[in-house]
């Protein structure tokens, strides 16, 4: 029997479940936040209403607004494992966030995102030691150059 791949929603839920467990180890994980229903395929009427309230197309799915390693925050565009690469709108966000002093990456799957978050909160990712190019991480997290 072939298993259905996890959806982006399921991947994001796994990340936030992990973050809840590890808040005792890294209290700053309390601040991690996610997008409003990213990857769930909402109806156009609802999307239009959310856009009027400030939701922007392409905004990364996960944000950790704490400074570490010379960065002012971490942003993750989450894709399901084996899923598509980020869209042009998503890449535009990642480029602008990186230019503004954040670390903004794309991770494919919850394992890659969790590894990236761990590396960020423990200070392993240091500005100048990580490529300025947008990282697309299958399952390995972000690696310093």
Mind explaining what this structure looks like?
The mean pLDDT is 85. The protein is globular, with a radius of gyration of 15 Å. It has a single domain, classed as Trna Endonuclease, Chain: A, domain 1 (3-Layer(aba) Sandwich). Strands 1-2-3-4-5 form a five-stranded mixed sheet, sandwiched between helices. Helix content is 33%, strand content 13%. The longest helix has 15 residues. The chain is an alpha/beta fold. Helix 1 runs parallel beside helix 4. It has four helices and five strands, in the order H-E-H-E-E-H-E-H-E.
Brief description of this entry?
With 145 residues, the protein is an alpha/beta fold.
Order of helices and strands: HEHEEHEHE
CATH class: Alpha Beta
Order of neighbouring strands in the sheet with most strands: 1-2-3-4-5
> How can the largest sheet be summarized?
5 strands, mixed
What helical percentage do the residues reach? 25-40%
Mean pLDDT: 85
CATH level-two architecture: 3-Layer(aba) Sandwich
């Amino acid at each position: 029997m072939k298993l259905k791949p996890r959806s982006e929603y399921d991947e994001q839920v796994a990340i936030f479940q992990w973050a809840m467990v590890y808040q005792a180890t890294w209290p700053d994980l309390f601040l991690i936040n996610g997008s409003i229903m990213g990857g769930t395929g909402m109806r156009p009427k609802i999307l239009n209403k959310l856009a009027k309230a400030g939701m922007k197309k392409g905004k990364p799915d996960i944000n950790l607004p704490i400074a570490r390693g010379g960065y002012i925050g971490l942003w993750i565009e989450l894709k399901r494992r084996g899923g598509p690469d980020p869209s042009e709108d998503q890449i535009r966000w990642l480029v602008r966030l990186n230019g503004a002093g954040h670390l903004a990456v794309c991770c494919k799957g919850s394992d890659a995102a969790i590894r990236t978050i761990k590396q960020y909160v423990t200070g392993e990712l240091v500005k100048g030691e990580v490529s300025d190019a947008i990282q697309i991480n299958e399952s390995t997290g972000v690696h310093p150059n």
